[in-house]
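FW: tagging you since you asked about this chain on Friday. Here's the raw sequence from the shared folder, copied in full. Didn't touch anything.
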Amino acid sequence: ITSSEPLSSSILAIAAINNTHIERHKYTRYPVIMMKSTALCSLLLLTLSTGVCGFATRLTTYTTTSSPSSNLIVLRDFPEGAGPSDYDSEDLLPKKAVMVDDKEEDVQIRDALKRELLLLASVTNRGLYTNKDEAGLVLDLVSQLEALNPTANPADHCEGEWDLCYASTQLFRASPFFQAIRTAVGDDNKQMAENGFTLHDRATSGSRIGRVKQILSRDQLINELDLEVGVLPGLPFKVRGTVVTTASMKIVSDKKMELRLENTKVKGSNIPLLNQIMEEELHLELPVGEVYKTIRGDVPVVDVQTFYVDQGMRITRDVDENIFVYTRP
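HL: got it, structure written out here
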């Protein structure tokens, strides 16, 4: 690195990172459902992504050169690990820690924050119709609650049944099925996954998603989505059912769980004959985990972090910092 004025490589690296643009997810106002084509579309996304996910990550950094007349900014690519050696890139990223608040005087503050959060979840239909100001208010409430978390090791205290009452993204992305797709494509192809989720959201906007429930045990997470799908536009008859996705679960820290997708199926159809065929005779169940192993050699590990949990509320974040708020039924 050469320059007319001495600059340390650390300052240049920090400047490069600070100028990196992080594209945030855009909220959508469309309802969300899952249709029969979901599995095929998801696997198509995954198949397309495997062709590009194999390339090695490149570390891009800025260097400066000088000339007698001017200073030029030159963009160069370095192989991974060949950048400036006087800093660790992980040290520059903020690491969020679990906060534990055991002050009795803060109980009323927590209750007030939870009431306001649940009110916003209600008036926005679990976040489906959240505008920018409301989304910012929810984020502020969640951040305050996380700072007042009353439970040590929150990831160890999530067992039981929970209902999803708010999501800062599409409701269906609470399912490990879709979170595994996001993990499989990696950060380099994040936008491809986001486009796929938006396409799925808009293509199924004519139907309605009902209750979203999670059942957690020590080593397993079961996600259930109640769906109502219109057969044909204009007809009053609709097909109802519940999409059940199962994932193995491993608690790896005080806040983080690792999920590995196992299978998904549909149950509880309002068409008696179809329900009997699927559940009692055919036992239709898509072994998604085995499909991933066949396509890419392993099952994507989905990271879910919990920074707040008490007897009645649980707040989690996915790999993209999307917020999911659950309450006890």
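FW: The two ends are 60 Å apart (CA to CA).
HL: agreed, and The chain has eight helices and ten strands.
FW: great, closing this out.
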